[in-house]
Structures are given as C-alpha cells and as structure tokens.
Sequence to fold (691 residues):
Amino acid sequence: MFSFDERVIPLDAWITSLVDWLVEGYRWFFQMIKWPVDFILSSVSDGLLATPPLLVIALFGVIAWRVSGFKLAGFTLASLILIGLLGFWSETMITLAMVFSSVVFCTVVGVPFGIWAGRSDRVNNILRPILDAMQTTPAFVYLVPIVMLFSIGNTAGVLATIIFALPPLVRLTSLGIRQVHPELVEAALAFGATSSQVLLKVQIPLALPTIMAGLNQTIMMSLSMVVIAAMIGAGGLGAPVVLGLNTLDIGLATVGGLAIVLLAIILDRITQSMATPKNKDVK
Amino acid sequence: MEKIVIKNLYKVFGSEPRKGVKLLEQGKSKEEIYEQTGLTVAVQGASFTVNKGEIFVVMGLSGSGKSTLVRMLNRLIEPTSGEVLVDGQNILTMNKDELVRFRRSKTSMVFQSFALMPHQTVLENAAFGLELDGMDKKQREERALDALKQVGLEGLENAYPNELSGGMQQRVGLARGLAVDPDILLMDEAFSALDPLIKTEMQDELLKLQDRHERTIIFISHDLDEALRIGDRIAIMQGGRVIQVGTPEEILQNPADDYVRAFFRGVDPTGVISAGDIARDSQPTVVWHTKAGSPRATLEMLSMKDREFAYVLDSEHRYLGVVSSDSLRDAIDQGNGTSKLEHAFLTEAKSVQETDSLQDILSLVASHSWPIPVVNSENRYRGVVSKNLFLRTLNRAEKGTYFEQSAS
Fold:
C-alpha cells in the first residue's frame, strides 16, 4: 500500500542546513548588504531625532500644504501634535526613518526591475512567482533566518519590511510601462528614438502616475510591517504595540496602533497628492 | 527620379517566417500556408518604385497588408525577405545606429491615431523628432513653431493634445512630421480617423504643402476618393500582394483585374479622367509669323480643309490663340493687307490644363462653338476637346464600357 508517511521529502531539514551553512560561511556577505541600509536608517533617524519636534511638524505641514492644500496641512499638523502629546514622538521618528529607508531601497531595486519586467515578457514571467512568494509568505517564516543572518534590531526590521513592501512597486512599475500605448512607442521609434530614449522620453513619463501609485502602496505596506518588525527587536511605533500585547496592556497597544494609523494617513495622502499633480490635468 | 525602390518584399508573421516565404515561392496560397503552418502572410512579393517628389498612395482594404508595408519602409516592422532601397541604399542591411540615423534624417511618419505624446505640449510634440536628434531647445522650438505655422496652428503651442479636436491633433502630427524636414513622409491612414469635411481640408493642406516643398510622400489609405484626389500614382494591394501600380487614370482606364475594377465601380469618371486623357490633335494648327501663318494663307487652308477653326502656336509649340474663318476675314478687311494673325484671335477663347478633370472643363466645352484647346503646364499645345468627343466619353463611361474601349 502506498503511504505518504514513508515518502516525505525532507525539505525542512535541507532548508535548515542551508540556512546554517549560509550563517556559518557567508554571514560577512549579509553583513555587507546590511551596511548601506544601516547607514541610511541611522542617519535619517538620528537626523529626525536631533531636529526639534516643532520644526519637523512645521516641515510636514509645509509639504502637505504644497502638494495638496490647507486641509491636508491642517490634518497633518493636528495629527503630529496629537502623536507628540500621546508620548510617542521619538518612536514615530524612528518608524518614519524605517519607512523612509525601506522605501528608498524598494525604489532603488523595485523601479529598475519593474521597468525591466515591463519591457520583457520573459523577465515578467520569471519575476511574477517570486513577487507572489514575497507577498504571501507569512512574515514569521523569514523573520528567524533574517535574525540569524542580520542579527536583531532596526536594520533587520527594515530588511524584513523590504521583502514585504517591494512587490507592489515592481508590479505597478511594470504595469505602468506596459500600459503606455504601443502606438506612442512606435511613433518615438519612427522618429529615430533609441531604446533608452523611448524609455526616458515616453515610457517612464507616461508610467509615472502608476509608478507613484506603486510607491504609495509600498509606503503603506512598510507601515503595516511596523509591528512585525518590532518582534525582531526593531524600535519605533511597533514596540509599544508588541509590548502592550505581551503584557495585555490594551491601552498601550491601542494608542500605539492609533499613532501608526495617523502616520499612515498622513503619508498616504501626501504621496497620493504627489502622484496626481493638481495644476495640470495631464493624463 | 527613383527615390524608393522596393524589390520582392515579404513579411510573414510567425515563428519560422522564412519557411512561409519558401512555401509562397512554391506557389502555395496565403490560406493554405496558414492552415498548414499557422504562419500569417502579411505582404508577399511586393515590388514597386516611388519617384522623388510624388505622392504615392498605397490603397487596399483592411487586412491587405498596406500598414505592414509602410512600416517595413522604416523597419518598424522587420521584413522577412526582399530589399528596400532608399536613394540607392539598402535599409535592410543597416545596423541599429545607421537605422536610427536614417529614421532621424530621411523619414518621418504620421499616424492614424495621431500618436501624440499626451504629457507634452503641442510645441514639444512638434519638436519631438528634433529633440531626439539632440538639437538644442531654442533652435528646435523655432523650427517646431515654423512647422506649426505651416499647418495653421499658431497660438496653440502651449496647449496639450487632449485639449484639441481630432483635426487639430492631426495637424500637430503633421507638424511633427514636417519639423524634421524629411525627404520622405510616411502617412499611415493619416486622415482616416477624421470626419469627412476635416478630411478634405487636410488633403488640401497636404497638397498645398506639397506645392511648396516637393517631398516624397507614401500615403496609406483605404479610401478611393482620397487616393484619386491626392495620389500622383496609386498602388493597389489585395491579400498582401501589390496587384497594380499606376496613375489614377491608368488604373481607371485599364484595371488589372476584377478586384481593381470593383474598387472603381461607382466612381464618377468626369472627376478622374482629365482633359489631357481625351484630347485629340484633330484640328488644324498654324505657326504664327511664318509664311503659312499669315491670315490669308490660314484662311485658304481652312477653306481647303473645310474647317472652321485654326489653333495658333509659336515655333516652340506653345498655344497662343484660336482663329476662325470669320475672324480671319474681318481682320483681313480691316487691316488692308498688313494684318497679323493675332488680330484675328477669338477674344473669348481660353485654354485648359491637361490635368483639369472633365468636370472642370464641362462649362467651357458646352458654352463655346469651338473645340477647347488643351495645354500642359508649360503652355504647350496637346490637342483639343470637342463637344462631340466630350459627349462620347461620357456616354461610354455611363455604359460602363469606357475601360474596355480605352484599353484597346
């Protein structure tokens, strides 16, 4: 009789030994990857923490006012002041720095890959299952290997965030490039555009709104990883939530959650306004 | 002068296009090949020559391969086999850089769907080709403005394409094509998306532009009226094959097969047949200021031949006027022997151009008793169109037998 009990592929054991092997032999390599992330993260968070809170609040207010208007500026000012009054100012700045660094790396990696996938069906077909895996693999599965390779802390949190937040940017960049009408590409070629001119003068400008929507999604997903990142020792707004959960301090967890939501709304509205220029009704 | 020579050009879409060409050469039809191999034959064995400065219309129904054909001229679509020579240079052997340079310097293209960049202003769109070529901003905007002026779009430089009507958008498309000052303008159903009135307006605009700069224009169209209106020569395509190339008159008078004939059914021949096509050298002519060209000698000649009118030319065969036996007699009586032939010219006599259509000359033919003289663009005499001839032509065309009789 056939039974699965005797025929189990020992994949779990293989993976365990693979990770062990990586940790033993190539930890230096992963530490090297960590370095630029660490650098940006610490400079941004140090910078934000060193700046007087009122100046940061004013800066955000001005940005919100420039890209959208008085309404968003008012909301931004009120929310940030509230966060400060709730006692989460420094946590918020750390979270902001983490989101910023993960978005920077997602952009540096995601936009080129998205463009590549947008211009090549083969690349798109290869990337798709990888992106699916990145988005659907439960974060807890890769948290432990990440800790083993990168140790705990803010930087490991950012790296876990990048894995989760990268896919929408790649997907939407690819979609944006693909949505550019083929006649426009043909017209550019007919007038003697080189491949890079087609990209820079036609495809990217026309895909920009979609790419910006991808960036917005990446920011939102980075924020949603804040709590999970806190589980591997990352600081910021996730920390009070995790602490609150562990100690059944519902009040602390909820207030931390409220600060995350407010920050999310501010970043979402600001980036959305940036994606849709208000003066030009250019589609 | 030959500008573009196309030799035995094939395009087969599919995974092994060369195989398709081989099968075609073995005499298999497009349909058989599709059933056997799944290959789609778009253009098969197209050969023709486009002369410098002419408007060459490629006409055919949708699916006849005409859009594929025009895209092979600048290699937006890579031909499967054959040759495309532009100024004697085979563009199919060019490498990437040469091709980019060729596209920038020799050709430009106007599209059915306009294909304007929605994120750029009208001015930026018109300057697009020059920008690709790396011309500096000030210079390219100057040339783009000039091109916009040529197509009547001054004052709209800062608008965006989506703020303009279809006709205006295509003017921008045309300006973009003209700004690079190309030798060859490829127009792919350029006016097909416009409503009829605007379409006619744009055709006139194109003809006007062509008067000023003689460009070589390849115009793709599925509209017969358009082809007849603007085409110096027409190529008719069916099922990927070029089945006939010629001037509108040639094709109308001598259609290659039933397909072409069916195309032309219902075309009003008076709009297509020109005065030059039917003019006959049936009337007596005299050369002035010669012995035989004196009023007396002319009068004598007319009465001997029993004719009423004589056509006066100079020694270079240029048309000067018409005299009748009555006008000659009057001139001789008044002139006391010193009169010259020009004193006897019929003041109402007017010549027509050989390119004028029968429609254009109808009223002249009908309202005068003498046959109307026909001249070419250099005023050289080509013959006359008499009432009789005119009516016979119409009669034959009406019965639908014009083609057969003229062809014989």
